[in-house]
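Technical annex, item 7. During the second reporting period the consortium partners agreed on a shared format for inverse folding records so that results from different sites could be compared directly. Each record opens with the tokenized structure and is followed by the designed sequence. A conforming record, contributed by the partner at site C, is shown below for reference.
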């Protein structure tokens, strides 16, 4: 990796790209993770390639701003590089990385004093533009507190436990928030249907 101006590894990130299709986020090969933790920059670059698309999309869902998502992605990988040796493996690597990304996104939002609506575009959402509009209207009915677990579980395919690790809450809290998010979306979709 080339060195950045701050003397930290420069990451070559391409917004929104990654090695995988939308779906479940898989953890890296344990050998790659071990090598990266030992300071192997090539192994860390492998981690960047594997996760950069997911990290960028997750950052974008928080910020709803492509440039800000780029900044969040860059900062998330810089922090991951800086703290990789402290990763103990108590949770999945992907959960740890998403937690860092979430923290970076929240820091960026606070730093710029933005009010950012965190409505997600569901991966694999209907191609019909009207259906997409209805889906976004339904997601608007969900509070940010309930949207976060929905995004992690339904879009990124994390388990309830993994989502709990990312958000720093109990699994029961995730289940409760998911139930409320689904209920709010169903109610909003029903109102949309009645309005026709």
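Designed sequence (site C submission):
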């Amino acid at each position: 990796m080339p060195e950045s101006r701050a003397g930290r590894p420069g990451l070559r990130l391409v917004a929104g790209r990654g090695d995988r299709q939308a779906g479940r986020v898989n953890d890296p090969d344990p050998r790659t993770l071990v090598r990266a933790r030992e300071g192997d920059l090539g192994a860390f670059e492998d981690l960047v390639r594997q996760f950069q698309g997911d990290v960028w999309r997750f950052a974008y869902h928080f910020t709803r701003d492509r440039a800000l998502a780029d900044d969040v992605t860059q900062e998330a990988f810089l922090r991951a590089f800086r703290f990789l040796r402290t990763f103990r493996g108590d949770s999945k690597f992907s959960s740890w990385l998403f937690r860092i990304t979430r923290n970076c996104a929240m820091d960026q939002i606070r730093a710029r004093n933005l009010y950012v609506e965190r409505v997600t575009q569901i991966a694999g959402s209907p191609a019909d533009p009207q259906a997409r509009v209805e889906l976004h209207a339904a997601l608007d009915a969900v509070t940010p507190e309930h949207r976060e677990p929905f995004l992690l579980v339904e879009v990124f395919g994390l388990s309830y436990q993994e989502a709990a690790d990312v958000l720093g809450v109990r699994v029961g809290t995730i289940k409760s928030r998911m139930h409320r998010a689904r209920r709010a979306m169903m109610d909003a979709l029903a109102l949309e249907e009645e309005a026709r």
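The radius of gyration is 18 Å. Residues 120-196 form a domain with the Arc Repressor Mutant, subunit A fold (CATH 1.10.10.10). All partners now use this format for quarterly exchanges.
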